[in-house]
Amino acid sequence: MASIEIHRPHRLSPAEAHAVIDHVATRMREKFQVETKWQSDRTLSFQRPGITGTITLEPNEIHVSAQLGMLFSPLKGMIEQEIRRKLDEHFS
């Protein structure tokens, strides 16, 4: 099982960062059939067969943690690159 851990600083207000994560979660559900659920005001969990993880909002940082099953482990580099690209797009 492969894992992905990404920390990215941001300058958004908590409400703005929450709205961005809501938007990203909608896209994840539409594009990848991922189930998402807010666990608290600052942690969104996501899952689908072969992938589980969380997106956690800190005051000045976003943290993405994902665990990839055997099917997705060979795609770790590509998945991580796409996550980083989306974080750059929304939080830079």
TrEMBL record:
<dbReference type="Pfam" id="PF09650">
    <property type="entry name" value="PHA_gran_rgn"/>
</dbReference>
<protein>
    <recommendedName>
        <fullName>Polyhydroxyalkanoic acid system protein</fullName>
    </recommendedName>
</protein>
<dbReference type="InterPro" id="IPR013433">
    <property type="entry name" value="PHA_gran_rgn"/>
</dbReference>
